[in-house]
Design a protein that fits this description.
The protein is an alpha/beta fold. The chain folds into two domains: about 160 residues, Lyase, Ornithine Decarboxylase, Chain A, domain 1 (Beta Barrel), CATH 2.40.37.10; about 180 residues, Alpha-Beta Barrel (TIM Barrel), CATH 3.20.20.10. Strands 4, 13, 14, 15, 16, 17, 18, 19 and 20 form a nine-stranded mixed sheet that branches. An eight-stranded parallel β-barrel has the order 5-6-7-8-9-10-11-12, surrounded by five helices. The longest helix is centred in the middle third of the chain and has 21 residues. The structure holds pyridoxal-5'-phosphate. The site of pyridoxal-5'-phosphate has 18 residues, from α10.
C-alpha cells in the first residue's frame, strides 16, 4: 500500500490532490494530465532552505530547472527566493521569460557551442565551465565578471548509471590538474570573481557518497586558492537529493544531511582559509518530484494466458522514467482508494514498443476500463522528458493551490504534430 503524503488525500474512496478531486480534474482537462501542487513545491523549498540555513547563513538554492521547466513552477520558486541552474540556452531563455533576473541564473552546460556562449554572454548569466575548450572560446568572446568551474571530484553517485555525473567514466566536469589550469587562464584574462562547482549524480538518498565527494572537491578548492590565489564567492555542491519512489525507500533525513554536510563544509573552508563563501545547492528532483501526479485513464483491460495488462493513455512518450531507467512510480486507483490490491498488472501505455510499461507485475485493485490511475512522484523529469514519439500530442499541465486549479500548459493538438514540416515532397528540377 502507498501511504499518502501531502498533497494527496483519500476522501471517501476518492483521491483528492490539494483539495481537488482527481476525477473532476480528469473530467475537466482530460487525460493524460500532469497535476502540480503549488503548496508542496513551496513547502519542499522552505524545508530544504531552513534545514541548510540553520547551520550556515549564506545559502543559495539554484533550482535545476531541467527537472520541470513549466513557467508556473519557475514563478513559484522565483517568489520563494530561489536561483536557477540552467543547462541550455533554451532554459536560460525560459528562466528569463518567467521573471528570473540574469544575476539569479547559473548556466551549467556541457558540449557548449560557440554561438551558445555568445548568447550566454549577451544574457549576462554566470557560466560554469565544463572544459578548457569552452573557457578558451568564452574568453575570446568576452571576459566575464564572474566565472565558475565544474570540477569532477572523481567520485560519483546515483540511482542509475545514466545519472552518475562524476567519476572516471563521466563526461562532466574537469579533473584536478586541469582545474588549476582553467582558473589560471581565467585569472590571467582578468576575471575578477569566482565560484567552484560539482554535481555528482541524481537520486541520492544517503549522505555518505556526498561527503566523500565534498571532501575531495574542497581539497581541489584549497589547491586553487593556494596555488592560483583565487577566492571563492560561492561553492556549489550540485543537486542530486533523492526522493523516495518505492514504498521501502527511506526519505533522506534532511537535518542529518544538513548537519553533516555543513559541518564538513564549515570545517574545511575555515581550515583551508576559504573565507565565508555562499554554500550553493542545485536541487531539481527534490523540489518538484512529489509535488505532481500524472493522471491517466484505463482504456483497455486485456488478459493473455500469461499476463493481465491495464492499457492506459500515458506511455513513455508522457513519462519516460520507467522505460528509460527502470524507475518505480507508485500508482493509485484514484476512484477506488479503499479497494485492496488483489491482482498483478502490467500497466501499459499506447506506444508501439514492448518497453512501454509504467509498471510491471504491479499489485493493484481489480481494474476496469474507465478507472483513473494516479502515477505518483511525476513532477521531476516527467513532462520535461516527454516527447511526441508515435506522433502523439504531449499532455496538459494543471496547477493546484488550496482547492483552486488552473491550466498552466495546454494539451497539444494534432496540428502541433505537423508544425514546421513542409508538405511538398517534390524536388524542383
Ligand atoms: C540535473 C542537474 C541537477 C539536479 O539534479 P537532481 O537530481 O534533479 O537534483 C543539478 N545540477 C546540475 C548541473 C544538473 O545537471
Amino acid at each position: 500500500m502507498n501511504t499518502l503524503t501531502e498533497p494527496l488525500e483519500n476522501r471517501n474512496g476518492q483521491l483528492f490532490i490539494d483539495g481537488v478531486s482527481a476525477r473532476d480534474l480528469a473530467e475537466e482537462f482530460d487525460t493524460p494530465l500532469y497535476v502540480i501542487s503549488e503548496r508542496r513545491i513551496r513547502s519542499n523549498y522552505q524545508r530544504l532552505y531552513s534545514a541548510l540555513t540553520c547551520n550556515y547563513e549564506k545559502v543559495k538554492l539554484n533550482y535545476a530547472m531541467k527537472a520541470n521547466s513549466n513557467f508556473a513552477v519557475l514563478k513559484i520558486l522565483e517568489t520563494e527566493g530561489a536561483y536557477v541552474d540552467a543547462v541550455s540556452p533554451g532554459e536560460v531563455f525560459t528562466a528569463l521569460t518567467s521573471g528570473f533576473t540574469p544575476d539569479r541564473i547559473l548556466f551549467t552546460g556541457t558540449s557548449v557551442r560557440t554561438d551558445e556562449l555568445k548568447f550566454l554572454v549577451d544574457s549576462n548569466v554566470t557560466i560554469n565551465i565544463d572544459s578548457q575548450s569552452q573557457l578558451d572560446r568564452l574568453l575570446q568572446i568576452s571576459v566575464p565578471k564572474t566565472l565558475s568551474v565544474r570540477v569532477n571530484p572523481e567520485v560519483g553517485a546515483g540511482h542509475h548509471d545514466h545519472c552518475i555525473t562524476a567519476g572516471k567514466q563521466s563526461k562532466f566536469g574537469i579533473w584536478e590538474p586541469d582545474v588549476l589550469t582553467a582558473y589560471e587562464t581565467a585569472k590571467k584574462a582578468g576575471v575578477g570573481k569566482f565560484g567552484i562547482h560539482m554535481h555528482i549524480g541524481s537520486g541520492i538518498l544517503e549522505v555518505k557518497p556526498f561527503l566523500g565527494a565534498l571532501e575531495k572537491f574542497l581539497s581541489v578548492a584549497k589547491r586553487v586558492h593556494e596555488q592560483v590565489g583565487v577566492d571563492f564567492e560561492f561553492i556549489d555542491v550540485g543537486g542530486g537529493l533523492g526522493v523516495p519512489y518505492k514504498p521501502e525507500d527511506k526519505p533522506l533525513d534532511l537535518q542529518v544531511f544538513s548537519d553533516k554536510v555543513l559541518s564538513l563544509f564549515k570545517a574545511r573552508t575555515s581550515q583551508y582559509g576559504l573565507g565565508e563563501p555562499f554554500f550553493c545547492m542545485e536541487p531539481g528532483r527534490y523540489l518538484v518530484a512529489d509535488a505532481c501526479v500524472l493522471l491517466t485513464a484505463v482504456n483497455t483491460i486485456k488478459k493473455t494466458p500469461f499476463k493481465k495488462f491495464a492499457g492506459v493513455d500515458a506511455g513513455f512518450n508522457t513519462l519516460l522514467r520507467p522505460a528509460m531507467y527502470g524507475s518505480y512510480h507508485g500508482i493509485l486507483v484514484a476512484n477506488k482508494m479503499f479497494a485492496t490490491e488483489e491482482e498483478k498488472y502490467d500497466v501499459a501505455g499506447p506506444i508501439c514498443e514492448s518497453g512501454d510499461l509504467l509498471a510491471k507485475d504491479r499489485r493493484l485493485p481489480i481494474l476496469e476500463e474507465g478507472d483513473l490511475l494516479a502515477v505518483l512522484n511525476a513532477g521531476a523529469y516527467g513532462y520535461s522528458m516527454s516527447s511526441q514519439y508515435n506522433t502523439r500530442p504531449r499532455a496538459a499541465e494543471v496547477l493546484l493551490n488550496d482547492g483552486k486549479c488552473k491550466l498552466v500548459r495546454e494539451r497539444e493538438h494534432l496540428d502541433d504534430l505537423t508544425r514546421g514540416q513542409r508538405q511538398s515532397a517534390e524536388w524542383s528540377k
